[in-house]
Amino acid sequence: MKMPQPDMEEAKFAMAPLIDMVFLLLVFFMTASHLSSSQSLPLEVPFATKGVVPKDRPHRWVVNVVSNGTVYSGMEVSSIDALKTSIKERMQVEPQLKVYVRADANTSHRDVRKVLMAMAEVGIDDFIFGVYTPSDIREAMPR
């Protein structure tokens, strides 16, 4: 007895889901590249021969001090008093707040000290400084 063969459809390649995926990836990378470029101010970070990259740096709140002494809380210009207020507000939400202080290499120590004193007055004791350690120095350092 001859078995009937089912009518096989020819295999087709569905383009619509692929086009949707390409557009989703395009939007994702456009958004991600914009966010990564807008996370920090362009500063000439000071050099340090013994700088260490901490593991939790991305999870810290960033405070920038530019060369003319202007303080930025994240990406927004802030005075010292406004910085204290925003630190207090943020500490109510996040009691174990950690700060990443980035100062320009040409910023006077007096301006950086004002920021550190403001943070100390409201109870911030966990902060790190942003420095640049050239890779040739890092490789030459003993471990």
Keywords:
143 residues; alpha/beta; Nucleotidyltransferase, domain 5; five-stranded mixed beta sheet; 5 strands; disordered C terminus
CATH topology group of the domain at 57-140: Nucleotidyltransferase, domain 5
Name the overall outline: elongated
| End-to-end separation | 80 Å
Number of helices: 4
Low-confidence runs: 137-143
**Considering DSSP H and I runs of 4 or more, what fraction of the residues is helical?**
25-40%
Number of DSSP strand runs = 5
With strands numbered from the N-terminus, the spatial order across the biggest sheet is 3-2-1-4-5
Characterize the biggest β-sheet: 5 strands, mixed
Textual characterization of the structure:
- There is one protein chain.
- By secondary structure, the chain is α/β, with parallel strands linked by helices.
- It has a domain at 57-140: Nucleotidyltransferase, domain 5.
- 38% of the residues lie in helices and 13% in strands.
- The protein contains 4 helices and 5 strands.
- It has helices at residues 16-37, 80-93, 109-121, 135-140; strands spanning 61-65, 71-73, 76-78, 99-103, 127-129.
- Strands 3-2-1-4-5 form a 5-stranded mixed β-sheet.
- Helix 2 runs parallel beside helix 3.
- It is elongated, with a radius of gyration of 26 Å.
- The N and C termini lie far apart (80 Å).
- The model is unreliable at 137-143 (pLDDT under 50).
Describe the structure concisely for a colleague.
The protein has 143 residues and is α/β, with parallel strands linked by helices. It is 38% helix and 13% strand.
